[in-house]
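[job 4471] stage=fold_predict status=RUNNING
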Amino acid sequence: MEYLLKALAVLLVAAGGSFIQRVTGFGFGIFAMIFLPYITGHYIEATVLSSAMSLISTIYVSFEYRKNIKWKLVLPCVICSMVTTVLAVKFMSGKSSDILCALLGGVLIFLSIYYIFWSGNLKPRESLPASAVAGGLSGIMGSLFAMAGPPMVIYLTGVTTSKLDYIATIQCFFCLNGIFTLGVKAFAGYFTLEVVKLAIPGIAGLFAGNFIGGKGYDRLDSAKLKKAIYIFMAVSGAVTLINSLLKLFGK
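[job 4471] inference complete, writing C-alpha cells
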C-alpha cells in the first residue's frame, strides 16, 4: 500500500513537471524536487529519481532535433560539467538529508528571485570561459539539486541563433550530462531498486503531462503561469529551508 501511494504521488509530480516543461519550456527538475524528497524520504534518491525521469524526455527530444545540435557549444560545457559532477557527488556523500534540503530551499529562493527580477538581463557571449562556467555550474546544480537547467538556459539563450538550435543544443547537453550524472551516482550506490520502481509510474506521468501540456499550449498564458511558478518556488523554498534548519538545530 505504501508503494502504491508513493507511485501515485510520483506519477502526479512527473505529470505536473512535464506539463510545466511543455507549456513554459523549463521547470521539470525544479518542480519535481519541491516534492520528491518528501515522497522518497531520502534526498539523494530524490535527485536520482528526478534525473532518471527527465532523462527519458531529453533523449527523445535530442534525437528528434539531432540535425540542429551545435556540438561546438555542447562539448565544452559537457566536459566541464563532468568534472564538477564528480566533485558534487563526492560532496553529497555522508551529508544528511536535512543539510541537503536546506541547500535546496536556498537555491529555490534564489532562483525564484532571479527569474522574477533579473531574468533576461544576462547576455553571455560564446567563449571557452563562459562555457566552463555554465557547464561547471550546471554539473553542480544537476548533481546536488537535479536542476541542471538554469546556468545552461542563461548561456545558450545568448549564444544560439534560432529556437530550434537552442532546443536541440540544450536538450543534447541535458541528455549527455544526465547519463553521466546517473552513471556517477549509480557507481556511488545511489541508483537503488526503489528508484527504479518509482521511475516506472513517473515515466507514465511524463507522457501524460506532456500530452496534456501539448493540448493546452495555445490556450494558456505561459507568462502568467511562469509568475505563478516563481511565487510557488519562493514559498516552497522558504518552507523547505525553515523546516530543514529547525530539524538541524533542533537535534
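[job 4471] summary: The mean pLDDT is 87.
[job 4471] exit 0
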